[in-house]
Amino acid sequence: MNIKKIIFNADDYGLTKGINLGIIDSHKNGPVASATIMANGAAFDHGVILAKENPGLKIGIHLNLTSGKSLGGVYKTLTDTEGNFLSLAEITKRANEGTLNIDEIETEYTAQVQKVLDAGLSPVHFDSHHHTHHLPGVFDAFLNVAKAFEIKKVRMYDKQMLEAKGVDIYTTDGFADGFYGDGVTIENLKKIITDFDGESLEIMLHPAYVDSRLYKTSSYSIQRTFELEILTSKELKDFLSDNTNYQVCSFSTL
Predict the structure, then answer these.
(1) What domains lie within the chain, and their CATH numbers?
(2) Would you say 42 and 16 are in contact if contact means Cβ atoms under 8 Å apart?
(3) Buried b / exposed e across 97-131, counting CB within 10 Å, b at 16+?
(4) pLDDT above 80 (res 153)
(5) Separation between Cα atoms, residue 230 and residue 40, nearest integer Å
(6) Taking the complete model, does pTM exceed 0.90, yes or no?
(7) What is the DSSP letter of 87?
(8) d(Cα 144, Cα 113) in Å, to the nearest integer?
(9) What interhelical angle do 222-231 and 234-242 show, nearest 10?
(10) Spatial contact of 198 and 4, defined as CB atoms under 8 Å apart
(11) 191-203 burial, b if ≥16 CB within 10 A, otherwise e?
(12) According to the model, what pLDDT value does residue 1 have?
């Protein structure tokens, strides 16, 4: 029997308390075994406490260049004059133009990783907020920091992009971002899983309870509660237990 490893990974851990609680709920009562924490998130400390109380939830780092304040202060190419990260559109534009300073990215990434380590967590993989680590230049900084901290597992939506670098860093065979927005249905989630033809698949998730901070700062808020409802549903639990060729796991067992 061909066993397929399925990683249900929840993004944005540490951003708000409602997100943290939703992710923990989807771990305790659903298949979420992996989450990526935002080191500059407003609820980072709250997330650390919950993670230590729930060691079965494996923590990665959601490296961030586009939301909130940087940890390293003001950068010439990444932030405004108050240390706030530039918008995704602006970061993307500068990356494509080659005007982002790679040293600045590595400095900020390093600060974010170090904060997670100093909090007593042991990250098992890296990904990034808004997938910015796939951008030109940013990808090189991302890999450099992964190698510096001996992180061997990362998220990639293009596996060949990683393989072309010839590095000792690995990703899943497949990556699914379709369980999002209008795609948040149990039928679609089942289809994502059953249609996958490979040995390992990461499914990107954003379960949460909507608190005031999330409602005020994210356009993707109410939909997160729908994700949480599906992830903790009996229907999904039965589907996964009835299909014994699926192994729910984290990046640590990839």
Answers:
(1) 4-253 (3.20.20.370)
(2) yes
(3) eeebeeebbbbbbbebbebbeebebebbbbbbbbb
(4) yes
(5) 28
(6) yes
(7) P
(8) 13
(9) 50
(10) yes
(11) ebbeebeeebbbb
(12) 58
